[in-house]
Amino acid sequence: MIKVGIVGGTGYTGVELLRLLAMHPHVEVTAITSRSEAGVRVSDMYPNLRGHYDTLAFSEPDAKQLGRLDAVFFATPHGVAHALASELLDQGTRVIDLSADFRLRDADEWAQWYGQPHGAPALLGEAVYGLPEMHREQIKTARLVAVPGCYPTAVQLGYLPLLEAGLVDAGRLIADCKSGVTGAGRGAKVGSLLAEASESMKAYGASGHRHLPEIRQGLTDIQAGAVSLTFVPHLTPMIRGIHATLYSTLIEAPGDLQTLFERRYAGEPCVDVMPPGSHPETRSVKGTNTCRIAVHRPENSDTVVVLSVIDNLVKGASGQAVQNLNLMFGYDEATGLSAPAVMP
Amino acid sequence: MIKVGIVGGTGYTGVELLRLLAMHPHVEVTAITSRSEAGVRVSDMYPNLRGHYDTLAFSEPDAKQLGRLDAVFFATPHGVAHALASELLDQGTRVIDLSADFRLRDADEWAQWYGQPHGAPALLGEAVYGLPEMHREQIKTARLVAVPGCYPTAVQLGYLPLLEAGLVDAGRLIADCKSGVTGAGRGAKVGSLLAEASESMKAYGASGHRHLPEIRQGLTDIQAGAVSLTFVPHLTPMIRGIHATLYSTLIEAPGDLQTLFERRYAGEPCVDVMPPGSHPETRSVKGTNTCRIAVHRPENSDTVVVLSVIDNLVKGASGQAVQNLNLMFGYDEATGLSAPAVMP
Amino acid sequence: MIKVGIVGGTGYTGVELLRLLAMHPHVEVTAITSRSEAGVRVSDMYPNLRGHYDTLAFSEPDAKQLGRLDAVFFATPHGVAHALASELLDQGTRVIDLSADFRLRDADEWAQWYGQPHGAPALLGEAVYGLPEMHREQIKTARLVAVPGCYPTAVQLGYLPLLEAGLVDAGRLIADCKSGVTGAGRGAKVGSLLAEASESMKAYGASGHRHLPEIRQGLTDIQAGAVSLTFVPHLTPMIRGIHATLYSTLIEAPGDLQTLFERRYAGEPCVDVMPPGSHPETRSVKGTNTCRIAVHRPENSDTVVVLSVIDNLVKGASGQAVQNLNLMFGYDEATGLSAPAVMP
Amino acid sequence: MIKVGIVGGTGYTGVELLRLLAMHPHVEVTAITSRSEAGVRVSDMYPNLRGHYDTLAFSEPDAKQLGRLDAVFFATPHGVAHALASELLDQGTRVIDLSADFRLRDADEWAQWYGQPHGAPALLGEAVYGLPEMHREQIKTARLVAVPGCYPTAVQLGYLPLLEAGLVDAGRLIADCKSGVTGAGRGAKVGSLLAEASESMKAYGASGHRHLPEIRQGLTDIQAGAVSLTFVPHLTPMIRGIHATLYSTLIEAPGDLQTLFERRYAGEPCVDVMPPGSHPETRSVKGTNTCRIAVHRPENSDTVVVLSVIDNLVKGASGQAVQNLNLMFGYDEATGLSAPAVMP
């Protein structure tokens, strides 16, 4: 049994960590911080947690106390983890950061996209990008893990087999992505109201989105070479789920794409390659840490279409964070992550 | 480890049984029947079950095979369980029926509401009404359990403390109930299409609904006397959930209603009395076997308003069925039923 | 052609006025005010208005300018209309107030429910309650009309025939009401997010809601005597629509209730009594100024159930405001209000 | 005033024609046919039409009677219009076909995609493809108009300015399209149930969809040369709306794309080019005959992204049919099509 804390627990990734960890046999959440809600019991704010965390309450963040824990999750807006992570690492606490703070290796690029200087550039060298399907071994021994973003997870897992095999033109990748509204967080924005966002669909950030450099960095690592990506996210009237539709152009005879994907993900506990001809639904992964993938080659042309779905709050955030924790502490990778999706 | 079967597994209560039993440590599902889908793997029909039931397939119902199992769930339309239940009981298999076939004690009343003669009146005497909060002891030794309907569960649990205490006028009860569309089952009806049922609200069956005699029978048992109930169900644009708003009139000074409810349900693993002033949300119980209840007395008048919410497919069907199985086989009552709701 | 203005036009009732008046042949909107959005074109904020109001922009409120118009609508939060209405009336401009500011005749009761002193008690005597089905003649000559609230409209129109006929016990009325989320306005509140309010149902204000005194006052007028009402509103996961389910107890033999309702509303352009056995859907009135009503007497008991549906933003606000304007200026009452609902 | 009929009026495009024509000053619907619902009043089936069509009832199709009308709309499944259209044209009635029966010029290609021989190949030569923005002049004098499909309308209008100007590589077009569920019609299919289709997103027909040859034919006409298109439709949890996200690659310096689009669509009553940087929402066109378009060039690369939204039942079907009728009979093109979208 290890003791963990959550910094910034009032948002959707925070409550999702609590939900998942309630089902984890080896983890106890002993601290959860929130400046605005200090003193409030988590089960008063999230009634689904009644009966699971009846005494746990939000508290002011305290580096000393957090530093006594085995691991601390950051479920904070960008910029918050920089300073505190360093303090915790110094006390021997391992850090799993769900924010964007340690995802980009280049501090300047981070500063450019997030509009402020990077607060802990010295840590960038050791931060491990927490995509287990790419970096499993480094994660096991990492002190500091940067959990990938939701879009980046769905897109990278979809392109991975194709780019590793060098089958497609890395200079012409198109990722058309659709997300549920929890991707925008729990902030009270007019655009996220049910009255505004339901019964409608729209693109956003068509001219540039903060997940773009993260995806590009990840695909470049996979490809071992430069990539060019067009990434258009869309807001979909549903609570959770990301559907990535990924287009690429074959540059050589591909052999059997289905087999390529199945082999690459054989043994992966959190990636499920669907049978040929499938169209994965986001609801089939809702609440779970699974990425479901199908690969198509329409009319046998030179265009490959990969369909990749995840729950943005689980495999795209809190579930992947727990998967990383399992690896870091030697538990079976899927511990606490095995409940099937609720469907319908 | 016991072996169980599911008869009529293609509907929503069937797949929900599979989902819940996938998390149950002591139960193995070894048979699931469907005439129309015989030969199809359940995980091909319900992709959320991929990785959980990769070999289980629908089969033709076979009384001999089912009769070798410890227990069989019926998730069938009304009228189907009558004959087969009898055969299974004769072979020593215990039966948990999620349909309406054994809920009413009076075969004539059943025939009147369901438009056909009752097929197994001889079994009505021993069938136990599977509402654990009322009939826990009988359930433990029952061979045949009739799992309550969804509306009846929400309504009875809401009125129970008031009627047991004799505080309200049993001759003037009003249950205004709202249900998600899965209450109408998985049948392909125009009225259940997203295009027809979303972005709208309507009542139905205002002049009489099949759950009315079941609720009346249950409330009469609780009250130990005649009751008069007006019951109006409504269709709500959501997948799951029942919200029962229950009105009654005080006939004597009630003392503290909050305490009355808390005491009645103290120790009940599947009923959660909310703090004073609460308004339970159906999403807080989605996917769980919990009934959340709040009690109000508006403007300190003689009207009591009870708000009672459940997931119609869990506490209102498959979860309550598992709760009954746990009692029948001596497991902890909430085994396999402890995952928190996914929220948001 | 008359010239009108809208004060506080950024909210949902403001944009709905613009939508409806775009189809009105005799009205030109020449001013719309908003302190926060001054200078912004309405079609930039509401793209559905592109091509309809391409030059109209929000402006700072200016009593002089507004005072030159024929009529001014207030689509403001409570308390705002008190002072400005008086100024406009003095200049001869007629005022149609969609807020709650002039609905209650008793300034003290208003102060109690709205937590501040009434700002224009001198006007309460002449303000006409703008429910045309009750007060048509007074509306025609009114200088100041208080447009009824959404819940009050649906509830009063449903009870009206029963109370006028003296058929039911006015001491035991129960109004169980369900509303879409636009009832909560365009404010950015966490509880109104799609992620929080969809796929769920809950009651709110079960112990007291601001529409209660308004409904009580209206029903008392109809009944010509005291009434006792329990009113429980619920939040439903849809954008628009109110479904009122109204319970009452017969105190004398009712004759044919269907005929009673049909006669009472014969000739009413905005009330539609459905055939016997009907269950009106809120979507059937979406975007329209119609109230659809059905009356039931379950199992021929002494309980009457009336189902009454409106669009909360149209017959419950902006459409009823236009209906009042039509009466005040001598136009046909349904002018500009005749487009059928979009369905599905 | 002209008299029109609708063949196959029970589906969504049929009721939508009725809704739109109720607001048309020059058209009277005097016949609507349905074999299954003959004798039923349209307002009994669609309560939103109460008060608009109180006497019109479905009737058996009768070529003689229909042949006396000025125009007949076909809102039928594919294959039905072939024989009857010919009969009506012979009697001098003009035909506006909303089905796919006359959209493809090549009878063999039609037979291949629809799995049956074409029933009226002799008419293919004179059928005019009813996209007014391309074929306005031919429509005016046409006897037989094939109204474009929903996806084809959104995709063609989005690519039109780019292809006409020869700016992009016609050999590498990617149309990622998202549709509400009414695109699947009013048929009672399990996959279209609210319980199945809400709170989820999925692609379908990724390997080939019936709209593909129609889009290809249209784009080839525009391009005046061969095109290669990848088309992936997605099911979105909303009632109405299509969002087409269109990718293409520049093959020469484009100049100002915004100006290109604005000039091409200047004066078009049913196409609205949004300001630079816009992301059109499907709800902004709900219920209207408008196509809203925005053009982006992410990071100033050689990839152009066009966002094109329509209401699949209006500009994608019944509204475009009325627009064609207006052209054919010399009315202003937007007659009866000017009501703003209901929003929110």
Automatic annotation (TrEMBL), chains A, B, C, D:
Name the lineage. Answer: Bacteria, Pseudomonadati, Pseudomonadota, Gammaproteobacteria, Oceanospirillales
Q: Which gene encodes it?
A: argC
Under which name does UniProt file this protein?
A: N-acetyl-gamma-glutamyl-phosphate reductase
Q: Where is the Semialdehyde dehydrogenase NAD-binding domain?
A: 3-142
Top-level EC class as recorded in UniProt: oxidoreductase
**Which reaction equation describes what this protein catalyses?**
N-acetyl-L-glutamate 5-semialdehyde + phosphate + NADP(+) = N-acetyl-L-glutamyl 5-phosphate + NADPH + H(+)
Protein function: Catalyzes the NADPH-dependent reduction of N-acetyl-5-glutamyl phosphate to yield N-acetyl-L-glutamate 5-semialdehyde.
Could you tell me where this protein is found in the cell? Cytoplasm
Active site per the UniProt annotation: 150
